[in-house]
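Consider this record:
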Amino acid sequence: MPLLEGKNALIFGVANHRSIAWAIAQALAAEGARLALTYQERMEKFVRELAEKVPGTPLIPCDVQSDEQLDAAFAKAAELFDGGLDILIHSIAFAPKEDMENPFWQTSRQGFLTALDISAYSLVAMARRAVPLMQARGGGSILTATYIASERVMPKYNVMAVAKAALECSVRYLAYELGAYNIRVNAVSPGPVNTLAARGVPGFTTMRDHMTEVAPLRRNIEQSEIGDASLFLCSPLARGITGEVLFVDAGYHIMGA
């Protein structure tokens, strides 16, 4: 029997076929999960085309900076999934372009707040709404996507690195508090992959080239490898794992430079 037969998964963060969230969605669907994908209005066309590749996958509009839209998205998910949710995928990150390009010490107040709101607080906001739906299923799994810049200086990653650090800390606190409801909370930390968000990071190509030279496996990773690792964390195979950051970066994170 497929690992996720009968499981319901709500996925935030699909923008196009290169999205980490899409790689995760494909892996979950391949193991029997029923999906619902959220989308930003400007990305609807691309997300709809992808959803058609997994027959029966509904779309839900949602701007994560709006509490009203988050409420509506989870209410719709509850309707689609008969009141129960097993898996929540959070793969969302954003910082204003100028605050990525300028030196970190020149980060604007609004840019800082925007990056933390969209990239980190949104996980907390989603978890709060997911808890009652997961309780109805006897527990669940929440998974987010982070990056090693939360721990080490990656030039030009700037305020996004701070947001990822906040995201990882949020994972630990959520894991601690939601464990009482049999809800696991983890993060996957991939190497630099060619996503829509990554292409907005100055020096992204340099990051990819450096990883290929330094990582023990002497290569970069593929989106499918992120999907497979995420599938593991969301499946019963990882039922004893919570509060963790799983690196999927060809071993890059163990190196000193």
Summary: The mean pLDDT is 94. The beta strands are 8-12, 34-39, 59-61, 87-90, 140-145, 183-190, 245-248. The longest strand covers residues 183-190. Residues 8-248 form a domain with the Rossmann fold fold (CATH 3.40.50.720).
